[in-house]
Each structure stands twice: as C-alpha cells, then as structure tokens.
Amino acid sequence: TILHYKAITEKLVSFSSNVQSSFKAEVSRSRSLERGTPLDRSRTRQSLATVIHGSNKTIAEAQAILHEESLPQGWEEAFTEDGARYFINHYTQSTSWDRPIG
Q1: pLDDT tens by residue, 24-40
Q2: What share of the chain in percent tops pLDDT 70?
Q3: Class of residue 9 by CB neighbours under 10 A (exposed 0-12, middle 13-18, buried 19+)
Q4: Distance between CA atoms of 70 and 2, rounded to whole angstroms?
Q5: Is the pLDDT assigned to residue 44 strictly greater than 90?
Q6: Is the distance from CB of 9 to CB of 34 less than 8 angstroms?
Q7: Strand partners of residue 86
Q8: Using DSSP, how many helices (H) and how many strands (E) does the chain show?
Q9: For residues 64-79, b (16+ Cβ closer than 10 Å) or e, as one string?
Q10: Which of 12, 25, 37, 94 is 20 to 30 A from residue 78's alpha carbon, by CA?
Q11: DSSP string, 27-46
C-alpha cells in the first residue's frame, strides 16, 4: 500500500541521513589523524567523500518520492531501458510520457 511505501521511504531517508552524518564525522576525524601515510589518508577521505555524495543523491531521490503525489488508480510508473520515465494506464492499455493527473 501507499502508506507502507511511504513509511519505508521515510525510514530510508532517516537511515541515509544517519549514515551520511557518520561519514561526515569520520572525514573530519580522518583529517586530524597523524597515523598512516598521506596517500592512505587521501584515499580514506576520497572514499568517504564518494559515499557522502552518493548518500546525498539517495536522500534527495527518496525525499522526492515522499513528496510526489500518488498516481491515479490503474496507472503505473515505469522506465525505459535508458532510464526515461513514462506511465502505463492498465485500464486503457496505453502509455504516456506525461504524469497523469487526478
């Protein structure tokens, strides 16, 4: 159901935010470490920065889902092989590039 989907998405946003905060703290901590070679510290910061960037995208996408209105009954959102979004009307067995209203 939509309510269950929204609850799961809210948990995902919360979890991703917590992970992101942890990684940001680790980046700060790794900058102050004197152990290891400069290359090790650089690789650690680069890896953490990559995860933080990915979590920013995940959080934004999940929040967009939470704020998106549900589709009318009989409609489904789908994606082409190259990632273009379209909508399927199962009642009329038709498709549309435009999001249905109502």
Answers
A1: 777 666 666 555 666 66
A2: 70
A3: middle
A4: 8
A5: no
A6: no
A7: 78
A8: 2, 3
A9: eeeeeeebeeebeeee
A10: 12
A11: HHHHHH--SS-HHHHHHHHH
Burial of 31 (0-12, 13-18, 19+ CB in 10 A): exposed
Q: Which two tokens stand for residue 35?
A: 């152990």
The answer to whether residues 78 and 87 touch, using CB atoms and an 8 Å cutoff, is yes
Q: What are the structure tokens assigned to 91, written together? A: 């009642």
Whether the CB-CB separation of 56 and 21 falls below 8 Å is answered with no
Residue 58: phi, psi to the nearest 5? -60, -45
Cβ neighbour number for residue 63 with a 10 Å cutoff: 16
Phi-psi region of 52 (alpha: psi -120 to 50; beta: other; left: phi over 0): alpha
Tokens 């929204």 belong to residue: 6
70 CA to centre of own chain: 18
What would the two tokens of residue 73 be? Answer: 């009954």
pLDDT-based confidence at residue 74 (cuts at 50, 70, 90): very high
Paired tokens of 47:
């890896």
